[in-house]
Every structure is written in C-alpha cells, then in structure tokens.
Design a protein that fits this description.
By secondary structure, the protein is an alpha+beta fold. Helix content is 30%, strand content 25%. The structure holds glycine.
C-alpha cells in the first residue's frame, strides 16, 4: 500500500515508524512523507508541500498514485484536506472538515456530548465578559477556561486565580467571533483513549497517560504533553470497554445522525473521577506524544487498520494485536518552552541514545543544518560532502521512547536515553510514568 502521510512532527514520525515497523509481506507499505523532519524523511520519499492547502495535498496524492492519505495534525483536517482527498476518490484517514468540528470547536463538542448522552463537565459557552463572570461565579474555583477555537495547545487554562481566568477569557473573546467554554474542574487521573472510527464502528487502541504540565509533580503551565506511557497498571480492567460503550460509540452514532460521519481517530481525553468517567476533551487525530507509546506496542499492520477505517470496513478488519510490553516516552523541550523558545542549538547524543537496545528517538522539532564553512560548500565539487548537524527548531524537540517488559523497566531505559542527549537550554520532566501510590484507589 502506498501511503501519503501529511504532517511532519513527532506524531507523524511515530506514525511513519509504526507503518513501516508493522508492515509485512502481506501488508507492504511504501511511504511518501512531508519534508522537513530529519527523523521522518529516511522512512519514505520526502516531498515539499503545504499541508494546509487541500489542493496541494490532492495534487501530490494523485501524482504519487497513493492508495491512502493519512493526515496527522488537526489543522489540515480543519482546513478541509480530507474532503478534498475523498472528492478525488482516494481514501483518507482523518475526518472531514465538518466532522473535525469535534476538535475545532469546544462548544460543538459539548453539544454533541449532550445529544449523545456522553458524560462531561458542566459548562457554559460565553461570548461576553458578563457571561464569563456569571459562569465563573456559578462554577467556582479551580477555574477551567477553554478557548472555543483551535489554539495549538495553548487554549486551556486551569487556575485558582480568578483574575488570570478572566484575562485568558478576555484574550480569547477579543478575536473576531471569539468564544470560551468555562466548565467544572474534573478531579481525577487523566487517560487518553484513541478509537479508530469508520463512521459506524469504533475500535479502541490501548490506553495511555499524558503528562501535560511542564514541570515535575504537574507544576507549571500546560504544554502539548511532556511524556506518556502505556499500559496503565492502575486503570481498572473494564474501563476501556466502558469508554467505548458510553463515549466513543454514542459520539460516532450522533455524528452519523447529523450527516457528518466521523472517519479517522477519535481521541477521547478522559478524567477518572470519583463519580465515574467524564470526557475532558475530544480531538480528531492521534495525540502527541501518546502516539509514540501506543503505536510502539502495536504488533499487527497499522496500514490495514487505517485503510479499513478510511474505507468504512473496520467491522471486518482483524483486531489489532498488542504486545504485553510497556512503552514510555520522555519529551526533551527547548529552553523557554512552553513560552518563547530558544532554538538553533546543535543536539549531541541522539545516536548514543538509539544505540541502547529498546530505545529510539522520535524527532518532533528538529532540522538538519549544514555546519561546513559556506566558502567550502560554495567551492566544493564532485565528492564533497558538507558537514551537517541536527539542531532544535521547535518547542518540543525529541521524544526518547523505550519499550521493555514493564513500565518501570521502560521508564529506566527511556531516562538512560535522555541522559545521552544534550543541547543548550534542554529541559524535560523527570517523573514521566510515575504515579502516586494511592492512584489505583481513584476513578469510578
Ligand atoms: N497530548 C495531547 C494532545 O495531543 O492533544
């Protein structure tokens, strides 16, 4: 199967790695990838294109005669890439623009949850500061204020400080058509459960946990995610079935009933509260960095599953086969992240980390730069190979990922890998894949 993968961050590197690693003689995979990620590029033929331009993506897909387009990030989906690809008759893994509203608008997601009877936090959608004040009074602290629109991981604030909550809301409302969703704080450990969907059927992948705050002990501001692990030894065994039955299936049924069938990845972000399972958020694509660990445990062809979802045939697809191994990923971030980041520094030690058995390094925000003297490069002729180095270019830079028999072994191995890698300003959490001893008493 020839696959065009749209997007070039850490999630897409992990998707490409899993597509290639799980391919076999019955399910061979040839990848065409988006240029710009030095970890992803060697896994396929790389092309320069604009992922946010549906016509450009279609041009590439048609010219390459691909069998399947897989869209990694949310922004191309919200821009209508899946609609355009489907329009020319190529199956696309990723929802249409209308179905991507589940992530693009928090208030739309709440509306669907209400229609579908899916349990979530009580909330108000506010368009004025008077409505914001009324909602903050009604719900009390901690205040949870979510930008209604996509905000690249920066849309949510959880704070005891009413003034900070108001300021965040004011910033969101200041944009044309700005709105915020203010909701009850959900107390309890969070779980990310990804479900493949083909419009009718939902197939769960294995659950993972993400560490969203920048600092150890869940201190500091929210980030896109600083690390993840799977399995979750503290999660009760029937939780996945319950999430599929009470969250994923009703949501997919409600979307179909509206005429906006959902095909792709329904990311259920959940809180295991003392009152039961509650939805924190929906996303319409694989999570980052949870994908890095979830797909590391997949031992059957990923291409077969994604194609079945894209073509409405999940009910007939073989169930995914999962390793009993654990996987842990630790994100190495640039100085300043999640604020303005300090980039352009040479990264040392990636090969040393990858030399550890069971460890691989996913590139999330890096590029390869020529380090030879420009005069030498200009004068160089046949056979001259300029020197190059990997430098940090984004907030989240590398995801050091380890697979081992237990979470504890994978965690130790991942941190051995982390210790090998150095760049100026680098920071990471040191408590990924640890959890309080009493956590298994939490939940429903
Ligand atoms: N790790 C959170 C997300 O992908 O949105």
């Amino acid at each position: 199967m020839k696959v065009l993968l749209v997007g070039n961050g850490g999630r897409e590197h992990a998707l490409a790695r899993a597509l290639v690693r799980t391919s076999n003689a019955d399910h061979p995979v040839e990848l065409v990838v988006q240029a710009g990620n030095p970890g992803l590029e060697p896994l396929g033929r790389s092309l320069v294109f604009n992922p946010l331009d549906p016509a450009d993506v279609v041009r590439r897909a048609v010219a390459e005669k691909v069998d399947l387009v897989v869209v990694g990030p949310e922004a191309p989906l919200v821009a209508g890439v899946a609609d355009a690809v489907i329009e020319v008759g190529i199956p696309c893994f990723g929802p249409t623009q209308a179905a991507a509203e589940l992530e693009a608008s928090k208030s739309f997601a709440k509306q669907i949850m209400n229609e579908a009877g899916v349990k979530t936090a009580r909330s108000f959608t506010c368009r004025t500061m008077d409505e914001v004040d009324a909602a903050l009074d009604d719900l009390g602290a901690p205040h949870v204020v979510k930008d209604d629109a996509l905000a690249a991981g920066k849309g949510v604030i959880v704070t005891e400080d009413r003034q900070a909550a108001r300021e965040h809301a004011e910033g969101c409302l200041s944009r044309p058509d700005g709105a915020v969703v203010i909701e009850d704080y959900l107390e309890g450990p969070e779980v990310s459960l990804f479900c493949l969907a083909d419009g009718t059927t939902a197939i769960p992948l294995v659950p993972a946990q993400d560490f969203k705050r920048v600092g150890d002990g869940n201190e500091g501001p929210n980030t896109g995610g600083m690390g993840a692990y799977t399995p979750l030894p503290w999660l009760r065994e029937d939780a996945v079935d319950e999430i599929v039955e009470t969250v994923a299936k009703p949501t997919i049924t409600a979307m179909k009933a509206r005429g906006t069938e959902f095909r792709g990845l329904l990311y259920c972000g959940l809180a295991m509260t003392s009152k039961g399972i509650r939805v924190v958020e929906f996303n319409v694509r694989f999570g980052d960095p949870e994908t890095q660990v979830v797909l590391e445990r997949l031992d059957s062809p990923l291409s077969e599953l994604l194609y079945a979802a894209a073509t409405g045939n999940l009910a007939d697809a073989p169930a995914p086969v999962w390793s009993t191994d654990a996987a842990v990923t630790v994100v190495l971030a640039s100085g300043g992240y999640p604020g303005p980041t300090d980039t352009g520094h040479i990264i040392a030690g990636i090969e040393d980390a990858e030399a550890l058995e069971g460890v691989h390094v996913i590139h999330a925000g890096t590029s390869e730069e020529i380090t030879s003297d420009p005069a030498d490069v200009a004068a160089g002729c046949c056979g001259f190979e300029p020197d190059s180095a990997i430098v940090n270019t984004g907030g989240r830079v590398l995801d050091v990922t380890a697979r081992a028999a237990t979470v504890e072994e994978a965690r130790v191995l991942a941190y051995e890998g982390v210790a090998k890698i150095h760049f100026e300003g680098e920071h990471h959490r040191s408590d990924i894949a640890t959890w309080p001893a009493d956590l298994n008493t939490a939940g429903a």
